[in-house]
Structure formats: structure tokens, C-alpha cells
Amino acid sequence: MESQKESLPTLRWGIIGAGLISSWFTKDISLPRKSPAAVHKIQAIGSSSLEKGRVFVETHLATLNPKPTVYSNYGDVYNDPEVDIVYIGTPHGLHKQHCLDAIAAGKHVLCEKAFTLNATEGREVLAAAQAKGVFIMEAMWTRFQPLVSKLKHVLFQEKAIGDVRRTFCDFGLDKDIASLPSTSRLRDPAMGAGSLLDIGIYALTWGLLTLESDPAKSERPRVVAAQTLRDGVDIATSFILHYPSTGRQGILTSTTEARTPEIFMRIEGSNGYITVEGIAASAPRAFTVYPKVEGRSLGADTGADGRRYDFELEGMGFSFEADTVAKSISQGKLENEVMSHSETVRVLEILDEIRTQGGARFPGEA
């Protein structure tokens, strides 16, 4: 086992932000696995206070040995010579500056989605990383899960449901946004508050993944969008991706006022349909392929026999993206094709268009 570990790519991580997403990520990459594809060492934790950082380690990394160094600021993480890569798990509105600071220190970067508040910021960050010669990637962890690659194979290689026609996907969480303090990242527009950047980005991602066999060769979809705003923050967003040459449509939604059932997506084709389920649209766990049954309407209650694919994970599934990053960096790459720089910018551009039509704005935007 030790000799196997020595042959695997190794990354020493500095973690920026001691919130929920950082706790999930760090627990996953420090979890013992049967067949790891990389070795991950949590070297440092940067928090807004020393006490908060120490509580984070005690709560989420109690069994880790050796313990990571805890810093009461982010700058010390960027400048720690024992840190290879910085994971940024702070609110969206802080991503741009935190990425730029890490890049300036010569660190590789894995930054949580949404990568930045808008495409303009995203291009600036990616240009800085390119100029510095460091690896950077948006941490859209769902794209790296085995279910996604299998689903795309079933859709576009096996063509199990024929020609893909429509995708319906919703990501809803029941959050009482109005009861939160105005400084909460879920209420503060400066932090990128709203359902779209937080969870709607997953619905968008599923639309792109299931309607396009090859993003590099796909036409740019037309976007039609509407948002419900409360105090300038979107609590519900609905949008359609329309591909004129094929007629394919993605009907995609997000809300903070209702929780989506476990079956969060349906993909319709000329010869059947597929349902995808999980604890949330960000964490798929199974999909089922239903063949076309003449004379019956679509729906899981049609009585048609479905072919089900289940995916058991070690942890939540964050290790797949971390392993991919480690492999890319060990190969000298500055980006990874699964979540390429161009795809990050394209997603941000679509998010910008949705907000342009829906009305949500962030400080400093026209």
C-alpha cells in the first residue's frame, strides 16, 4: 500500500474558508479509500479567526494526523511554502480576489463554483493564472462523478433513448432567506446571493451535459429566462436553453423556497426517457433508463421496465475532482478538459445572460 501511494501524484492543500463546503471537501479528500488515484495532504487552513479555524479542524478533521497548520488569515496560506494548491471555499463574491491573491503567490487553485460573480471577473482570473503559469480550475465537483460519464455514454454513445429532445432539471432548497441577517452570503448581493449562482448553476450544468454530446462542437444555445427577486436577490430562477439547429430544449429551474424531490431530472428522447435521482441535483446517486412504450405518456409510473444504474461512493464524491486536479498538475497541465477554462467562461456568460433577462444585479455591474 505504501509503495502504491508513493507512485501516486501528491498534493498539499491549503484551504481558504472554514464553511460547510470546505468541510465536505476536506473530509472527502482525507478519507481512506480502497483505490485512491492520488494522495491528498491538508497542509493548512485559513480562516477569518484562529478560533474558528481550530474549531473547524477539531470538528471535521479530528482524526487527521498530522494536523494542518491553522492561520487566522488567508495570506499566510498563500505564502506557506508547504502548500502546493489552494482550495477556495469562500462566498462567490470573494472568489475573484482570493484567486488573484493565490495566483500572485504562485499557487495552483481549485475554486468553488460559481467561479466568479460574472464572466468579466472570470476572464481576469484565468488570464492571471495563465500569465503566472499555474493550474486553475472551477470546482464543479458533479462533473467529475462516475455517474456523469456513464450517463453521457448511455445518452450519446449507446443512444439508449434515441435522439435527445428535452431535459427538465430542478434544484430547490427550502431556505427562509428573509429570516437571515443581511450580511449572510445568501442575502448579500455583494456575495453573489441568490438561487442562480448557488444552486441554479447545477441545473444549468445538467442541461449542458445532457443536451450536448460535445461542447466544443455544439452551437451556443439561445437563453430565455425569468427571475423572482426579493430585495434584489433571486429566490427563484427559470430558464430555457434552446438549440435552434436541433430543437433541443433544457427547461431548468432553481429556488430557495421549496425542496426538490429525489428525482430531480428527466431527459426525454425519441425512444424513451431517463430519470436521475439523488439527495440533491449536485449529488446524483442513480439514473434509470425507460424504453419508449407506445400509447403511454412519459412518467416513472407508466409501468415500463427501467434499467437502473446505481453509484455507491466513498464519502460524498469530492475526491474525484481532487484526484483529477492532482493528475493534471503532475502532468504539467494548466487546466483540465472536464472543466476547462473555456467552459467556465461559457457557463458564466450564460449565467450573466440569465441575470440580464431576469433582473438580478451585483454591486458594480451596469
Automatic annotation (TrEMBL):
It is an enzyme of class 1 (oxidoreductase). Its EC number is 1.1.1.179. Residues 11-137 form the Gfo/Idh/MocA-like oxidoreductase N-terminal domain. It catalyses: D-xylose + NADP(+) = D-xylono-1,5-lactone + NADPH + H(+). Coiled coil: none annotated. Gene3D superfamilies: Dihydrodipicolinate Reductase, domain 2, NAD(P)-binding Rossmann-like Domain. SUPFAM superfamilies: Glyceraldehyde-3-phosphate dehydrogenase-like, C-terminal domain, NAD(P)-binding Rossmann-fold domains. Keywords: Oxidoreductase. It holds the Pfam family GFO_IDH_MocA_C3. GO terms for molecular function: D-xylose 1-dehydrogenase (NADP+) activity; nucleotide binding. The keyword Cell inner membrane does not apply. Residues 155-274 form the GFO/IDH/MocA-like oxidoreductase domain. Belongs to the Gfo/Idh/MocA family. PANTHER family: OXIDOREDUCTASES, TRANS-1,2-DIHYDROBENZENE-1,2-DIOL DEHYDROGENASE. This is D-xylose 1-dehydrogenase (NADP(+), D-xylono-1,5-lactone-forming).
